[in-house]
Design brief:
Helix content is 72%, strand content 0%. The chain is built from eight helices and no strands. The structure holds fe (ii) ion (2 copies). The site of one fe (ii) ion has 6 residues, from α5, α6 and α7. The site of one fe (ii) ion (FE2) has 6 residues, from α5, α6 and α7.
Length: 223
């Protein structure tokens, strides 16, 4: 436990998953009562309990938790592509819609809660550095525009009939550009926006905002 206390970077990534879902800890030791999996499970439980106690020095929340929403959305898109290349077009369309709905909710949280806060707390500094929040908003519009193009492409695929390889390839080409676009956007949020919000907010504000940002998000839909 002392080792885990000393090196939070080792378990923080895992804790992001534990906090929002169910985790299964596996072990290969002979002793079922004393092994690393048990220690880790107890540690995660302790941290989660501490976090629920207001004013008791609980683990501070971090905007990088929103990476988890990005990851879950990426997984929906991956499912869409898997369905597409195996000619399950109805599934491909459903996964794409689910992805788009989740992404829209996430973008709304960013545009209505996070970006205005960022702007109000460091608007002047951002302007001096030549960095504006509307860059993120413009990227959101561009991402949604590409997504609509992909949806139009998938509408032409008929259930029960294998599409021509060219039809699928042209959709995958569109998706390749789209994936670069969204990965670049998410990376910028991970490197710039979320760390800046961590610096500009109090522990209580972070807890409130993250609670709102997880509502109806790709993460809360699955737990
Ligand atoms: Fe965004
Ligand atoms: Fe985001």
């Amino acid at each position: 436990m002392a080792e885990l206390d000393a090196k939070p970077e080792r378990w923080r990534g895992l804790f992001r998953f534990v906090r929002h879902g169910t985790a299964t800890f596996l072990y290969g030791a002979r002793d079922a009562k004393r092994n690393n999996a048990i220690v880790l499970r107890e540690y995660m439980t302790r941290i989660a309990r501490a976090e629920r106690l207001p004013g008791k020095g609980g683990c501070a929340r971090d905007f990088l938790e929103l990476d988890l929403v990005h990851e879950k959305l990426e997984e929906d898109f991956q499912r869409h592509q898997e369905a597409l290349v195996t000619h399950r077009y109805s599934d491909a369309r459903s996964w794409l819609k689910k992805f788009k709905d989740g992404l829209r909710i996430h973008m709304r949280h960013e545009e209505q809660l996070l970006l205005p806060l960022y702007e109000s707390r460091c608007g002047r500094m951002a302007k001096i550095k030549g960095f504006k929040t509307n860059v993120f908003v413009l990227e959101h519009s561009k991402i949604m525009e590409w997504l609509s193009r992909i949806q139009t492409g998938t509408r032409g695929l008929r259930i029960g009939r294998a599409a021509t390889p060219r039809a699928v390839i042209s959709i995958l080409d569109l998706e390749c550009t789209f994936k670069h676009l969204i990965q670049h956007h998410n990376q910028r949020e991970h490197n710039i926006l979320y760390p800046a919000l961590n610096r500009l907010t109090t522990k209580e504000e972070r807890a409130d905002l993250l609670r709102s940002c997880m509502l109806g998000s790709a993460v809360s839909r699955r737990v």
